[in-house]
Specification:
164 residues; alpha/beta; Rossmann fold; 5-stranded parallel beta sheet; 41% helix; 18% strand; binds adenosine-5'-diphosphate
């Protein structure tokens, strides 16, 4: 049988335990999961693409069927190029729904064969996002409940290098 590849796009600035939860659920459904780091025109990221990719690679090192890439442009076109059968998105609270619903309908119009899969993370992560993690870390707060130790170190280094 043809192996089923799913693509999980996002900004991942940086990857959190919420993202990891979604990736772990995805690998139990699909043969291969490609985590695709994209540009978001509405967001000016703290980390470079290379930094974000490296953090995702380290965070998912225990998952053999996960690869990390960068994409530019339309996600549906990238999905087509990768022969992805599905696109994964995480759904946290109702606040995510409106935007995701709109995006999903647009993407479905552009690429009707691509199945869009929405996964819910563990309750512990439903209020977690990368912005909060960056903010807490910038004020020197403990982010160990939200990201891996490696990502916590990278954030600490970014914000508090000069203080040492
Ligand atoms: P984007 O800018 O595309 O929303 P993000 O990196 O913030 O990129 O998120 C990528 C995907 O992961 C989105 O589908 C988002 O809803 C989901 N996601 C983000 N944080 C969490 C979380 N804590 N739990 C579950 N899904 C999440």
């Amino acid at each position: 049988m043809k192996s089923k590849l799913a693509i999980y796009p996002g900004t991942f600035d940086p990857i959190t335990l919420g993202h990891l939860d979604i990736i772990e659920r995805s690998v139990s459904i699909f043969d291969e999961v490609v985590v695709a780091v994209g540009r978001n025109i509405g967001k000016q990221p703290l980390f470079s693409v290379d930094e974000r990719i490296e953090m995702i690679q380290k965070t998912t090192a225990h998952l053999p069927n996960v690869t990390v890439t960068y994409f530019d442009g339309l996600i549906v076109e990238y999905a087509r190029k990768m022969n992805a059968v599905a696109m994964i998105r995480g759904l946290r609270a109702m606040s995510d729904f409106e935007f995701e619903f709109q995006m999903a309908l647009v993407n479905r119009t552009l690429h009707p064969e691509l199945v869009q899969v929405f996964l819910m993370p563990h309750e512990a992560y439903t209020h977690l996002n990368s912005t909060i993690v960056r903010e807490v870390s910038s004020f020197g707060g403990d982010i160990s409940a939200f990201v891996t130790p490696h990502v916590a170190d990278v954030l600490h280094e970014k914000f508090h290098r000069e203080e040492k």
